[in-house]
What does this fold into?
Amino acid sequence: MRTLQDQIIEKGLSPPAGRAERSWNTKRDKQEEQFTSREWAELMGTNRPTYGRKKGGAFRQR
It folds into this structure.
């Protein structure tokens, strides 16, 4: 006795399991973004002002 799935595959209404290519599984060629050293420094926040607490608990720029 055949299963319903075997009958559907035999009539050609559905591709056999395991043979269908999945679009989400294929590799895509992505271009990597090249950052300059200035852009890396900006992303890491090295050129931002720094603040600290001093006497009295007030925030002051270092």
